[in-house]
Amino acid sequence: MLKINNLHARVEDKEILRGINLTVNAGEVHAIMGPNGSGKSTLAAVIAGKEEFEITEGEIFLEGENLEDNSPEDRAHKGIFLSFQYPVEIPGVSVTNFMKTAINESRKAKGLEDMPAKDMLKLIREKSEMLEIDRKFLSRSLNEGFSGGEKKRNEIFQMAMLEPKLAILDETDSGLDIDALRIVANGVNKLKSKDNAVIVITHYQRLLEYIVPDFVHVLHNGKIVKSGTKDLALELEEKGYDWLKQETVI
Amino acid sequence: MDLKEKLVSSFLAFENGVDVDNPVHDIRTEAIKNFEAKGFPTKKEEAWKYTSLNTLQKIDYSIFPKKENMLEYRDVKKYFIHEIDTFKIVFVDGVYSSFLSETTHDGVDVCLMSSALNKPMYKQIIDVYFNKIASKDDSLTTLNTAFSKEGAYIYIPKNKIPKKPIEIVHFSTGNEAALLLQPRNLIIAEENAELQIIERHQSLTANEVFTNSVTEIYAAKNSNVDYYKVQNDLTTASLIDNTYIDQKDGSVVKVHTFSFGGKLTRNNLNFYQNGERIDSTMKGVTIIEEKQHIDHHTLVHHIQPNCESHQDYKGIYGENATGVFNGKIIVDKIAQKTNAFQQNNNILMSDKATINTKPQLEIFADDVKCSHGCTIGQLDEEALFYLQSRGIPKKEARALLMYAFANNVLESVRIPELKVRINKLIANKLGVRLGFDL
Predict the structure, then answer these.
(1) Closest residue by Cα to residue A114 from A130, A128, A127, A100
(2) I want to staple B313 with a disulfide (CB 3.0 to 4.6 A). Which of B164, B178, B190, B284 is the partner?
(3) Which residues of A fall within a CB distance of 8 Å from B396?
(4) Do residues A173 and A181 lie in contact, with contact meaning Cβ atoms separated by under 8 Å?
(5) Is the pLDDT of residue B249 over 90?
(6) Residue among A73, A88, A101 minimizing CB distance to B434
(7) B45: which residues sit within 8 A by CB, 6+ positions away?
(8) ipTM score for this prediction
(9) Can you give the pLDDT at residue B163?
(10) How do strand B279-288 and strand A215-220 relate by DSSP bridges?
(11) Residue in B394, B400, B435 closest to A114 by CB
């Protein structure tokens, strides 16, 4: 599904990713953990194609295709989805209209006609029910005045609508209370299949109790310093990140 | 001969076509003297620092259109809010078109300035209102006053509401190589009256047009006036809009200005609050590009206590476009408990676009709330990335963000069909098809 080789990326003069290697296969859930400033969000944004970052070395492949020179929208059309840590507010554009635009743009890129209005409504109803989203919510302006929990739930709703091959959840658990966390995690679990993959970026182990990873990677100073199974997350929870930092210095 | 000389000497010819014994003509004669003394404003004047009329003055305009030009409704239908029934006062090259218009005298007067100025039955109203709130020394206003002859005349008696909105539309057909138009409108809403007006100036060919318009609006006690200005003209059309609004106790007047195109557009919007509990609202969306120029000059004069004013102008400037926002608020010493709010936000889409924005507050009362703010910026890159990451291409994503930026100005538009139209104009302006009606 996703293969990252020796990825180096920087913003202006600051090198943030210093040689990332990562392989994610279809059907897998990977968790990426690490202390603040380790490069987790940068990695997510670089995979999604954020132009602010310059890739100085290495490649990213999606299903064998090099994503170099692919715009963020191209990557979205190919099946990459990034759930934002801080979703942006768009006044005057309803959640429903926003999703219509996003879905039909993706269809257009694939040479398909617009989705018939009837099918669109059905899809919206189905997915919003899955995430326990109120109808009224869908006619509100995108993210405008949403609580932290509503924003994150809306991100997963968008993911459900777009049905990506690779979903990257960037700190989706931050700002969520336990009920919202459960709803969001249930949504992600329902969307999981043998044909898609999920990368969960998180600071804490909490979310991983609900979305159980097959692999856990620890990012530090722009490199993956340790990989393991879900037990690694528990170990990190217990010991913090300091022991890893020491290990890498040595 | 320069334009000023040409205009002054044309006044003699103009007098041949009007009743010089009418007292209104004394007002015109006084006005042409004032214009002759002052001439066109220059960049040396503070209020015209960023807007030059020099290039316009070099054009050889026809002042009196020679021949009438017929327009078929089907050819110009798209410029009307044709989805709804409206009263229409339509001018073609400055001449009233009875064919395209729909006027009324049924309980309210929606008709012509020429009738109001000439017919005895309107004399009393003309004596009370004509040229009373309009400036006597602003040179462009006096120029219009001197040649005032035709335009819209709307009179809504006490407690009346016209059955439908009123459209005032000026077409120019390009019959002349260059045409100067000077419409003069008088709008009176008596106590408790309500009305909605949509005004548009539309050039139909690439021949030069220069419109110098004056509108006087009198909003009596507890009246309610909504005025929508749609400025989406060609890049050979220039407009100077001088609007003067006199408000009495408890009246609510809202002016929305949608500026999407024109060579040079100057809006002089002047509110005078001659009463208490008055609400004056000015909203504007400007989206221009190429070498277009727009200048919004607003004035709110808080003369009495306990009044409010709200200004919210949003501007998006692309390519070499230039913009000006100058918002002047005067609060007189006795105008305590004034609440004046002013906001001007701008996005520059290119390195060559410029905006000059300036709040100008003169506050002589001590118990007032006045706030103002202006911003100039670019589109938020993070927001752009967010939309792109959902598969929305950059161009459409930019358009969505621009729409979101300007959107709240549209919320107060009370004619749904007009709102839809403005949204479509914005979508067209931004060059996108978003898959839904904005």
Answers:
(1) A100
(2) B284
(3) 101, 105
(4) yes
(5) yes
(6) A101
(7) none
(8) 0.95
(9) 95
(10) unpaired
(11) B435
Phi, psi angle pair for A230, to nearest 5°: -65, -20
DSSP class per residue in B199-255? EEEEE-SSSEEEEEEEEEEEE-TT-EEEEEEEEE--TTEEEEEEEEEEE-TT-EEEE
Interface test with A, best of B388, B403, B408, B411 (most A CBs within 10 A): B388
pLDDT digits (tens, 9 = 90+) for B25-80: 999 999 999 999 999 999 999 999 999 999 999 999 999 877 677 899 999 999 99
Q: How far is it, in rounded angstroms, from Cα B99 to Cα B71? A: 9
* Separation between Cα atoms, residue B332 and residue B305, nearest integer Å: 9
The predicted pLDDT at position B408 comes to 82
In 3-state terms chain B splits into helix, strand, coil percentages (rounded to 5) of 25, 40, 35
Largest CA distance in chain B: 72
Which amino acid, B54? Answer: N
Six token digits for residue A246: 């020491």
d(CA A201, CA B424): 41
Contact A92 B404 (CB under 8 A): yes
Residue with tokens 């997963």: A156
- CA-nearest of A52, A25, A46, A58 to A165 is A25
The rounded distance, in Å, linking the Cα atoms of A37 and A63 is 29
| CA separation for the pair B58, B52 (Å, rounded) | 12
pTM of the model: 0.87
B228 near B258, Cβ under 8 Å?
A: yes
- Residue of B380, B394, B407 lying closest to A73 (CB–CB): B394
* Cα–Cα distance measured from residue B316 to residue B289, given in angstroms and rounded to the nearest whole number: 8
Q: Which amino acid does the sequence have at A168?
A: I
Q: What 3-state DSSP class applies to A194?
A: coil
Cα A71 from Cα B350, distance rounded (Å): 21
Q: Which two tokens stand for residue B156?
A: 């809504």
- Token pair 């220039």 in the structure block, residue: B238
DSSP reduced 3-state for B323 = strand
Q: 10 Å Cβ neighbour count for B293?
A: 22
A203's CB contacts (< 8 A; 6+ apart) are A33, A34, A35, A36, A171, A174
In Å, how far is B383's CA from the nearest CA of chain A? 6
